[in-house]
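Subject: Interface between my chains keeps coming out wrong

I've been trying for a while to get a sensible model of this assembly. When I model each chain on its own everything looks fine, but I need the whole thing in one frame so I can look at the contacts. Pasting all components below, labels as-is. Any help appreciated, I'm running out of ideas.
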Amino acid sequence: MKRRFEQRLRFVWLALSAITLAQLALGSLGQQDALTPNAVVTSSAIAIALIKVRVIIREFMEVRHAPVLLCRLADLWVVVTGVSLLGSYFVGMAHSAG
Amino acid sequence: MTTVQVSVAPRADGSDERAASSEKPGGVRFVPGQPDMWAFVLFEALVFTSYFTVYVIRRTQSPGPFLQSQTHLDLHVGVFNTLVLLASSWSVARCVQATREGSFRAALNNAYLTMLFGVVFLVSKVREWATAIAQGFSFTTDEFFSFYYFLTGIHFLHLLIGFVVLGVAVSRIRSAAGAAPELVETCATYWHTIDFLWVLIFALLYVMR
Amino acid sequence: MSATTTGAVPAMPSGSLMRRIAWHCRYDEKRELWIGWWTLVAFYNLYGLLFFVLARTQPPPQPSLGPAEIVQWFDDRRSGLLYGYAIVSIVGGATAIMTATLAYTMRRMSVSRAFAYSYLLIYALATLPGMLIMGVACTVGAMRPDRDHALVSWLYDFAFLSFEGTMGVFLVGSLIWMAAVLLDKNRVFPMWFGYLNLCNALTEVVVAPAWIFRRGVFAWDGAIAWWINMAVFVTYTTVFLTLLRGMIVREDFGSGPLPELASDRAPASAGTLGAAR
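Reply #2:
Try treating it as a single job with all components included. I did that and got this:
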């Protein structure tokens, strides 16, 4: 029983690390275009980061097992952050391009 | 502040109910650590969201200079930092689990391991700053670097506080063997916050374009 | 010293507000605490009005203004500055009552009295950069319209750097209060308030770059150094005023753990005459 939890933790850690390494690979690929703003790279970077954050919160911080209020508050923060960052980026880029 | 935590009765083998419930989805629901720490975590996370938003807005107002300066950051170092903190989150989560099971030796080892990962991060960060400064990029060089030093700096400060928090956890594990693990969980909650805030900082400073 | 020592205390009269206030002034054991609390509430509101509405020194203007623009800034606010800070200089002493009330909360805790005394000292000192220096500098700047522009610029920088940039004092004060709350066994304040003090302290750190930057988000009027910092500070102040009220209601003048709030009314304990508040 305990082993299952330990295995889950280990899996989560490895998965998060793998995603991080994937980000390294993606980042290295786009080096020649390093000076152009890229909405795809940016939004996927932010989205992936938020997914990682949510996994950390739900798995490592055990919010999965927390009362519903805490789950909702944590998710609300993730959503607010996502909207705020992606919204600012797209609105801001539209303004500076136009 | 009333806690929504259900009472956790220690079991005959010294472990507590939560050690088992961790593996049972939909089982007993509990708040890991003090709800008070969660209030802090959510509030601080919101403050960081506001800092990040200001950064993104300023970045979109002058994308060229920001991109130019960003090329001077080493993505590999950022990835390394992220991996180190992810590992530290893993070890502190294992520390909490060990505390619940009553395996205090294992709990201590994991706590020390977490501290070690923290130190590795600190050293790496200081070296990164030193390298950047040696190359002529300081706090006042340009806006990107102001944000870089600011965000990594304030995160660094949180990490330093994290060592104090881990110290509290260690002293609890050593002195009150058999006591409820709430304090250790509270400390772990704080530590995980340092990790997930870094995940966002990494994406915003090193990866986004 | 209070009416309770001389015999039975008359029941609080129902009826007009004035009669009830008079009764509290005569018989309430906690009247000094309530005077302290109301002073805090009144002062912070007045402070907000004076700085934001009358003198209009907050939100702060840009550090990057040139001498001619700075003189214009003073011109636009001349009477507001002079009247506003005249009022500040009269009521400024109220900070002594406020700081004493907050230090009292630390005395009530189970931690060493050194916490209360250090807090008292720090916040007594904090009145200087937090209010008085800026008041003097702004009124000097506003006083003579024909003053040399370079001097007026100097006063402008001096006023705003001393006001916005000296957050270190409040930082340490917050940390002292945080440590006291976290170590306290009498549960005077909840743990999360201790952590909120840490939040407040960390946002004060964030103001430090205001000494370095004259424009942008880290300048003394910047989005990060002022606006976000102010949002956290206002939240923090509102929270501690509310908690302080709860603490006074719960106060039993003992030295052990403070009783919890049973309901909207104070817990029944001898001489708790503030029950109807």
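Reply #3:
Confirming on my end. The longest helix of chain C spans residues 113-143.
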